[in-house]
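Budget justification note: compute hours in this period were largely spent on complex prediction jobs such as the one shown. Inputs:
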Amino acid sequence: MFSTLDMHILEILCEDARVTPREIAVMTGSDEGQVQAALSSLRAAGVLVGYQTLINWERTDREFVQAVIEVNVVPQREKGFDAIAQRIVQYDEVKSLYLMSGAYDLMVLCEARTLKELASFVHSRLSTIEGVTGTSTHFMLKTYKYGGMVFDGGKSDRRQAVMP
Amino acid sequence: MEYERIINRRVADVPPSGIRRFFDIVQKMPGAISLGVGEPDFVTPWSIRDAAIQSIEDGQTQYTSNWGLLSLREKIAAYLRMRYRVTYSPNNEILVTVGASEGIDLAMRALVCPGDEVLIPEPSYVSYAPAVTFAGGTPVPVKTCAADCFALTPAALRATLTDRTKALILPYPNNPTGGVMTMAQLMDIAQVLEETDVIAVSDEIYSELVYAGHEHTAFASLPGMRERTITLNGFSKAFAMTGWRVGYACAPKELLAPMFKIHQYTMLCASIQGQVAADRALGRAFETGFEDVRTMVRSYDRRRRLMVESLNDMGLACFEPRGAFYVFPSIEKTGLTSDEFCTRLLEKKQVACVPGTAFGASGEGHIRCSYATSLENLNEALKRIREFVNEL
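Corresponding output:
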């Protein structure tokens, strides 16, 4: 069961993962110990999985390519899609993996330094996994929004600076 | 031209807003953080904006009924009934106005005759007193204080009532103090009013922004009060729709009729796009169980606690606000006036707050800090205020 405090914590961290347990305690009118305990149990329950930073890499010098790969697979007896998914998540190139409804089964978001590296990942590793029957690769050209944040020309405060 | 001779004395004599000066300075200060903003830091939710765009595409570019769109009035009626247990007829007891501000002006012009007095609990929003003056009446401030949680007390009300008193403004939840009056406190006020013919003008624009177990009570929902109450509200704060300028005034038809008459001849109607957007805002709120509003309130509530704790910790005694999105700490211990404090804070640390005196003389010794800004801004501003206070 999720408590009100749990829900507050998730909302706060979702907005800004840098907020400290002490600050969360102040913001929710609870004490720091309670917040620490709630954080631990959220981690233990696998709800809080990690804390990351949203970076617009396109604004840096870093060279990289990203692609969405649609993957069709033959589900395995007993294990369904999970066994193949468990293999695919192991690759460092794979940033996200989803089981989908519709025309294909798995959606893989992957990233590599160069087109060549990405191509080699797809044809020599991903498509050769047993049970994978086909892939279709789409390269990403530009990120507009990610993780709920608008990347380019996003927020600017348009309000009058002082108003009664 | 001798403009001074030509211009209406009543208008000329009202001093310009004390806030303007700070605004001009902040505008030219690149690293400034403003805690002086009086509007939500959320943008109007997309589905509401989308409704307005759709209405433009559909060619909805005409006047609406002087009363406002009927479907909007029906939703307002349902909202007030469901949320605050007060019933108004969408046919002749609800008037859609250009923001709650127009409602204040209409109420004053409809009620006030030269020589009439209007009681205004202070500190409160800057527009009430000028609206009374423009209408030819005399604004009479009624002081409220932190010790009473900035509630209006029956004793203070009795002490200022005269046989010239025409109306009482009830500015709760309160800007700038964050005060919210409980039902019991409002009952006491109702009891005093019952012996008089005084009309209550209840500005409930912050009614949705109430925190930590406190509840908003619509004054008109109290026994016997509906007949003498003008309820003002709008979409600006609850739905982050300040720039759309859509509010509403509700009252028994005999009270609303003169307001309607002024509105009909001077304003005609609120912009149709604003009304369509407001209609969607309420429609969506009904569908989602006010999810957007709740999320917003939770977010404000956290920032509110952070502000109160931090200001108290640095020695600026702070009443814990129960509504709106402002804190109103005392700066008396610094020995500075509100104006000096805000001016120097802005010059030295580039943080803009509003001096309490902008909200009436009784605001001296306080400053208003809005927490309708990002957590990041708040933390930085609080850090700078702390430095400023320590360096005094």
